[in-house]
Design goal:
Helix content of chain A: 25-40%
Strand order of the largest sheet of chain A: 1-2-5-4-3-12
Radius of gyration of chain B: 18 Å
Radius of gyration of chain A: 24 Å
Number of helices of chain A: 4
Structural class of chain A: alpha+beta
Order of helices and strands of chain A: HHHHEEEEEEEEEEEE
Largest interface: A-B, 59 and 54 residues
Strand content of chain B: under 5%
Shape of chain A: elongated
Helix content of chain B: 55-70%
CATH architecture of one domain in chain A: Beta Barrel
Mean pLDDT of chain A: 80
Strand order of the largest sheet of chain B: 1-2
Oligomer: heterodimer
Mean pLDDT of chain B: 88
Order of helices and strands of chain B: HHHEEHHHH
CATH topology of chain B: Arp2/3 complex 21 kDa subunit ARPC3
Number of strands of chain A: 12
Low-confidence stretches of chain A: 105-111, 291-296
Number of helices of chain B: 7
Number of domains of chain B: 1
CATH class of one domain in chain A: Mainly Beta
């Protein structure tokens, strides 16, 4: 018997394909997790072209206003970097003090973890806009995993890697609705870590949350103020993100449900969804034989 | 329809979608147009019905693979099917309506994009609402339906400037000119 003509085969196969799609659309996630493996089939070929379109638009709509000069920008970034180093070491110091106390009680000392940095261009967003994900170039081969965080060169926190497909990674932006809450510290005017605030995305590119009520030794209250820097201090985030900048306080008002506490609105220092490239920060595994305190 | 020019156009349109979606987004909402959907409507308005069905399936699958859904845990997941089925249904609607309209007109393409977009997004919301009943997907059906219908309107508006370029590429895609069937009358 002669085979059916090509167009007839295509017509017959169509209902089968549609039924298969209906099944895939309704099967529970645990049965279809493996479709993730096919993402690179689309993301690898479209990555370069979407990156080009995005770069062209970035030239017209940059993430932050142009700096006065390259020298000033470099010095500002340097100053931010040293400030971050100081704060991170300070936070680490505080943690180690706590660890020593724990060690004296028999607990294990957790050593300082080194951070690997990788500059990665942002090549696009997810086709499903409500997911709030950015696609960046950098895959598992570059040491990127779900413990990697994304920041700008100015140490502004962008988000956290939630998935890696082939040579691309997907970053959940901190300001998108649905992103998890962030445990942060409002830095005081002298640059010291101040009261804590649990911030959540408000949907308009800012984050908002109630600041904890902290009394000074003199009986006063530590009040947040407009312009103060807010930094990440969340134990649920990787160590590589500790003390990165979340944004600046742009508004302080009484919290509706807590009259004694303040509700702050925090705006990132750049328009996060418009960044052209990010620095991926991964916590490196501890080198062999470098464990301190004999804990490992 | 020629597959290679279609693949190149699909690649460009999907690249535009992924690259510019954040910039074309309206405010904080997930309201953004889709270049890929405009290509689908142009193809569905001119190509043979079987080619349209397979083209819509391929475009929808590519869109599904480029999409991420947020789970309650904060992780992301890929789901194959919702966009592919929505694209197939939208394409079939355009195929059913194309005999009634003047296809080479950008306003017609925009109108078809609006109708097909609304139908596609409604199906997608229905499927995902059903799925959210047993899968831990972050999903608010009423909010999603509103945002997606607005996205359909936005796509239709974008089709006004984009569709003339795609209609010009119609020759490249190898669309056959549509000629009305002649009725032969015997005898007399």
């Amino acid at each position: 018997m002669a085979p059916a003509p090509h167009h007839l085969q295509a017509r017959r196969a169509l209902p089968v394909a549609v039924v298969a799609l209906v099944l895939f659309a309704l099967l529970p996630l645990r049965a279809t997790y493996w479709v993730e493996w096919f993402k690179p089939l689309v993301l690898i070929p479209t990555g370069p072209i979407s990156g080009v379109f995005r770069s062209v638009v970035r030239l017209a709509l940059p993430a932050s206003p142009p700096p006065p000069s390259e020298e000033v920008e470099a010095l500002t970034n340097q100053a931010r970097h040293f400030e971050w180093l100081y704060l991170r070491e300070r936070a680490e110091n505080d943690k180690l003090r706590g660890d020593i106390v724990e060690l004296q009680r028999g607990a294990e000392l957790i050593p300082d973890l080194p951070v690997a940095l990788r500059l990665a261009p942002v090549i696009g967003a997810s086709a499903e806009l409500s997911s709030g994900l950015l696609t960046v170039r950098g895959g598992a081969g570059h040491g990127i995993d779900t413990n990697t965080v994304a920041a700008t060169t100015g140490l502004q926190l962008v988000g956290r890697v939630v998935g890696v497909s082939g040579p691309t990674a997907r970053v959940r932006v901190i300001t998108r609705p649905g992103s998890p809450k962030l445990d942060t510290r409002v830095m005081t005017a002298s640059g010291e870590p101040g009261p804590r605030a649990l911030l959540e995305p408000s949907g308009d590119g800012t984050l908002r949350g109630v600041v904890e009520y902290v009394q000074t030794p003199g009986g006063g209250v530590v009040e947040p103020a407009v312009g103060q820097v807010v930094r990440l201090d969340d134990p649920g985030w990787p160590a590589a993100s500790r003390m990165l900048i979340v944004g600046r306080v742009v508004s302080v008002e009484p919290a509706p449900e807590h009259p004694l506490r303040r509700l702050i609105v925090v705006e990132p220092t750049v328009r996060i969804e418009r960044v052209a490239e990010v620095v991926l920060r991964s916590t490196l595994p501890e080198p062999e034989g470098s464990a301190r305190g004999g804990g490992r | 329809m020629r597959p290679l020019p279609f693949a190149v156009l699909a690649w460009i349109m999907l690249g535009l979608d992924l690259g510019l979606r954040d910039d074309l987004r309206i405010g904080p909402h997930a309201v953004a147009p889709s270049f890929t959907f405009i290509l689908l409507v142009v193809v569905a308005s001119g190509a043979p019905a079987v080619h349209v069905a397979w083209a819509s399936l391929v475009l929808g699958l590519a869109f599904d693979l480029a999409s991420d859904w947020t789970l309650a845990s904060g992780a992301s997941a890929t789901i194959i099917g919702p966009n592919a089925l929505a694209f197939v249904l939208a394409a079939q609607l355009v195929v059913a309506m194309r005999a009634l309209v003047f296809r080479k007109n950008p306003v017609t393409i925009a109108f078809l994009a609006l109708l097909a977009g609304a139908v596609a997004q409604t199906l997608l919301v229905g499927l995902m609402t059903l799925r959210a009943a047993y899968d831990p997907v972050q999903w608010d059906a009423s909010e999603q339906l509103g945002e997606r219908l607005l996205s359909a309107v936005y796509t239709a508006l974008l089709a006004l400037p984009v569709s003339p370029l795609l209609l010009l590429a119609g020759g490249l895609l190898g669309f056959q000119p549509h000629t009305p069937r002649r009725i032969r009358v015997r005898g007399g």
